[in-house]
Amino acid sequence: NASMKRRTQNYYMIALRAFLKFLRKRDIEAISPEKIELAKLPERELDLITPGELARLMEAARGAEERNVRDTAILELLFSTGLRVSELCALDNDIDLSQDSFSVRGKGDKVRVVFLSPTAKIAVNAYLKTRKDMSEALFVSIPRGKGIPERLTPRSVERIIKAHAIEAGITKKVTPHVLRHVFATDLLNNGADIRSVQQLLGHASINTTQIYTH
């Protein structure tokens, strides 16, 4: 299939190799698994933004409007914790800002601890003070007129970050996942070891975390 990505083709080839090894174990004649060669892939590159671009992104979100206070809290929390966007959207407003950390339930129902920076605490607290709705969600939409605020979806958070990146004049694609990359590389640049970063990101496998070390 010409439209199939090389990486996807390789997944099929790996499965075929495993099947051929299975046949060999059972002494069934078949082509040797070693003859199945994988397509060469380019080094996986991360979409990273520079510290200067991150500062511009944060600056673009700042302001006295309710929307700006919320968006600043989102950005500060993402950069402080390295949360996945789905984890961020699932948070409730009972988050304890007197503590330096909180537990989050991630992929595969795994619970991990993430850490709150002083600036993230201040930003989230300032946002909670603006809230007058009854929603238990930490981050909610700002409806026009008499609409009811609803829990933000990952898609909404992606749109919010994209809008501020455009305001900041950043031409790269900036997503919540890019901020997760920035969080990880910032930790590594400041001397954190790969195992600690794996725990903070909630990666089941160290191999997933390894892409941050390039």
Describe the structure in your own words.
The chain is mostly helical. The relative contact order is 0.14. The longest helix is centred in the N-terminal third of the chain and has 20 residues, at 6-25. It has a two-stranded antiparallel ribbon with strand order 1-2. The chain is elongated. It has helices at residues 6-25, 51-61, 66-81, 85-90, 118-130, 154-167, 176-189, 194-201, 206-210, and strands at 101-105, 111-115. It has 9 helices and 2 strands, in the order H-H-H-H-E-E-H-H-H-H-H.
Radius of gyration: 22 Å
Looking at how many chains there are and whether they match, the oligomeric state comes to single chain
Number of strands: 2
- The N- and C-terminal alpha carbons lie at a distance of 31 Å
The mean pLDDT is: 88
Question: Main sheet, how many strands, which sense, barrel?
Answer: 2 strands, antiparallel
By secondary-structure content and strand pairing, the structural class works out as: mainly alpha
The spatial strand order of the largest sheet comes to 1-2
Envelope shape: elongated
Low-confidence stretches: none
Number of helices: 9
Strand content: under 5%
Q: Name the helix and strand elements from N-terminus to C-terminus, one letter apiece.
A: HHHHEEHHHHH
Helix fraction, binned, reads 40-55%
